[in-house]
Amino acid sequence: LDGIEATEQHRREQRRESGFDLVALAGYTNAGKSTLLRRLAADVAVDENEELHPDLEPTAESEDRLFTTLGTTTRRAAMDRPVLVTDTVGFIADLPHWLVESFKSTLDSVYRADLVLLVVDASESVEEMREKLVTAHDTLYERNEAPIVTVLNKTDLVSPDDLAEKRDALSSLAPNPLTASAAEADGIDDLLDRIERDLPDYEHERLVLPMTDETMSLVSWIHDHARVEDVSYGDQVTVAFEARPTVIEQSRDRAADLPIPESA
Fold first, then answer.
1. How far, in Å, CA of 231 to CA of 233, rounded?
2. pTM of the predicted model, to two decimals?
3. Domain coordinates of the chain in residue numbers?
4. Is 89 left (phi over 0), alpha (psi -120 to 50) or beta?
5. What's the pLDDT tens digit per position in 83-107?
6. In this structure, how many other beta carbons lie within 10 angstroms of the beta carbon of residue 221?
7. Contact of 211 with 233, CB cutoff 8 Å
């Protein structure tokens, strides 16, 4: 677990430096997190790719057993904004005391996320769901600062009336939850819209740059890391874009380092 965490921390730092928002899927094992990740991903389709590159773990597994997802699996979300979604180790009921701290160490992806999706199996009883929500909240709020959105998954296994009753009964623990069926690809668009809405707001920036080869490289970098609104070329290059605050800061630093043409 220590080795996995060290590797994951390095990856998270690289992804954030690249301008990605980080979204973490949290919840108990068998709540459907891995299947949900595959529905949200831009580069992985459910039931595809398993046989293409088994050595590269092309997608998170979805099996009914403990510790199927050990470490994390991360995929880019199918949305215009650069967002990475990470499937984390699932919470486990009645975890032995000697494993509790080791388990908590695997949640660093959750604690460092910009948004947490707490996935709950809606086919379970209200009592089971309440108990798991309380435990998950106690663990997440211990160190987490990001917003938490509850996702009631597996709605294909629940009648509309039962689902409505469960939402009402759990409203104090899960206000304004989203409902989804990862297995049936139901509710995925609403979930992507919620991710977009609840992530930190982008900031706007406008850079006026010298017309140089180095500037062209910077403009290309901005296209890769931000949402470009307009680029105009003349004696100078003007770039208008919006991005995470960290990306805007990096773009300013890169712009300050550009050489000034000798003719200027």
1. 7
2. 0.72
3. 2-198, 203-256
4. beta
5. 889 887 777 665 555 555 555 555 6
6. 15
7. yes
